[in-house]
Amino acid sequence: MQRYLVGVDGGGTSCRAAVADATGRILGRGKSGASNIMTAPDTAILNITEAATAAFADAGLDTGLVKDAYAFLGLAGNHVENTVAYVMPRLPFHNSIIESDGLIALQGALGEGDGAVAILGTGTIYIARTGADIHYIGGWGYHLGDLGSGARLGQLALQESLLAYDGISQKTEMTRVLLDDFNNEPRKMVAFSQAAKPGDYGRYAPRVFEFAAAGDEAALLILSQSAGDIDLSLDRVSELTDGGRLCLLGGLSALYPPYLAQRHRERLVQPLEDALAGSIALAKNAFTRTEEGAA
Fold first, then answer.
1. Any residues with CB less than 8 A from the CB of 73 and at least 6 apart, and which?
2. Which positions ≥6 away from 48 have C-beta within 8 Å?
3. What's the pTM?
4. Mean pLDDT across the stretch 124-136?
């Protein structure tokens, strides 16, 4: 019987799946909703199943074959061991491997060989590969980490707006516009902050870059501080990879390079493929080895 491979890229916003033949050639793709297994494991299982089923349908295959597939899943929230143990037996596949969504992003971006990726989005995490060793740096979440992330940029922008309102910092066009978003009433901004999640702050991040490009001093100060935090993490990545390839990924990846140190900009390479292609490549590698070991 034909063996089908499934790759899954599951994040907090959406889940993408692909089905491939045994050679790794992608036949079809599917998409569904959020699949962070730490925050909502049962919802994630449903959406993983839906995305995989859609991928088989897109390929013109019998969707009943999902249950016989071999899947490699890169999932947000995978670092909680109990959650993985809960999710694994409830997946629809014949055999499954769960790893981080960052690992499949690295594989897709760099293919084989040493190098590193910096994922700069609502959060931040850095992943370096040297030989068979994978090193994760950061990714500790908004409350204790994610320096330079979209969430941190947005939070700093609102903070700077309140400092300007109080006359502690200089008022700029950015601080005026952000206060206007809250009808120039700081209490409304504070009320927003009480319930705001990282994604809520992250929506302000592109505006920080826009104001910085126009020369806004407050925005430039925030980006100087945030890029400096990223540079420090990239210095550690460089130590691990002996200054090798570096690829920036995530929603802010195209915006940050002008603000990063030259020593990092000169190492940048473009991603080869996306995370979904990376998950298929890892599925092929993992299950080919499994098959060979059983032979």
1. 7, 8, 10, 48, 91, 96, 97, 98, 99, 279
2. 8, 10, 15, 17, 32, 35, 73, 75, 91, 92
3. 0.84
4. 92
